[in-house]
Design goal:
This protein has 290 residues and is of the alpha/beta class. It contains ten helices and nine strands. It has a five-stranded parallel sheet, with helices on both faces. Strands 7-8-6-9 form a four-stranded parallel sheet, covered by helices on one side. α1 packs across α6, α4 crosses α5 and α8 packs across α9.
């Protein structure tokens, strides 16, 4: 039997993950009273149980009770019961935005307290659980379908998993460097398609612009050296427990050179490692929409 404990930050995507696991054939139970956790485990692990895949949702709403649930699970593991922990996380900025959009009060924010206070209190309570989790998925920049893909990779296809999500982001320097970028690369040294009349109003998502940008040997040299560097860095980031790596590739307006190179880098890295990979173009449509 496969037993998964689904937990994480409030607003991190726990409910969404449980629904996806349920659709994948898991028997899912959420918000079970802590006093019943041990009894539930005994029931589903008995010979009479027909459950082969079970997911148990635990959250921090009850505060102190969560610590008791951790103690129960630790004892179960000491007694030979095998389970995995899936931890759904997100940045404080994103969690705050999600709470403000839904106008909900954070479960650990006391009356009159700011949402940020509850988020930080919860993060401290969950710190140990996050460190020990087999799978940590940062949903800050994930679409629902991308989260589903990650869960399918782990729990359906049973692929080897490292909790690193690599985000390749193209952007325009004129609109500012992405605030969450870990690594930033400037490709403004390449010839700019903006000054070619027939390419000016197109983007690096289109073949004509890509062909122009990649017609220069400097583009290929840059891509080769960047790929080689990332192949060195990513295993070391995984070893150190990093959960998210944001790679920013920028040009002047974020529509031609940076988009092309981001697309090429994504193709180079896709399916080359056991990490999540996402591509986005932050500024590609700004001028087009103005």
């Amino acid at each position: 039997m496969r037993f998964v404990v689904v937990t994480g930050m409030s607003g991190g995507g726990k409910s969404t993950a449980l629904k996806m696991l349920e659709d994948a054939g898991f028997y899912c139970v959420d918000n079970l009273p802590v006093s019943l956790v041990g009894m539930f485990v005994e029931m589903i692990s008995s010979p009479a149980s027909e459950a082969s895949k079970v997911a148990l949702g635990l959250d921090v709403r009850s505060g102190q009770s969560f610590c008791k649930a951790e103690e129960i699970l630790d004892r179960l593991r000491e007694n030979g019961f095998v389970y995995e922990v899936l931890f759904l996380d997100a940045s404080e900025r994103v969690l705050l935005k999600r709470y403000k959009e839904t106008r909900r009060r954070h479960p650990l924010s006391l009356s009159g307290e700011r949402i940020e206070t509850g988020i930080r209190r919860e993060k401290e309570i969950l710190r140990r659980t996050r460190e020990k989790a087999e799978y940590v998925i940062d949903t800050s920049n994930l679409l629902t379908r991308e989260l589903k893909e990650e869960l399918e990779r782990i729990f359906i296809r049973n692929e080897e998993y490292n909790s690193l999500m690599v985000n390749i982001v193209s952007f325009g320097f004129k609109y500012g460097i992405p605030a969450d970028a870990d690594l930033v690369f400037d490709v403004r040294f390449l010839p700019n398609p903006f000054y070619i009349e027939e390419l000016k109003h197109h983007t690096g998502n289109e073949k004509d612009v890509q062909d122009f940008v990649m017609s220069y040997p400097e583009s290929h040299a840059f891509l080769e050296k960047l790929t080689e560097m990332l192949q060195f860095l990513i295993p070391n980031y995984i070893r150190e427990g990093k959960y998210q790596l944001v790679i920013g590739i920028g040009c002047t307006g974020g529509r031609h050179r940076s988009v092309t190179l981001a697309n090429m880098l994504y193709r180079q890295m896709k399916d080359k490692g056991n990490y999540g990979l996402k591509l986005s173009h932050r500024d590609v449509d700004i001028q087009r929409n103005n």
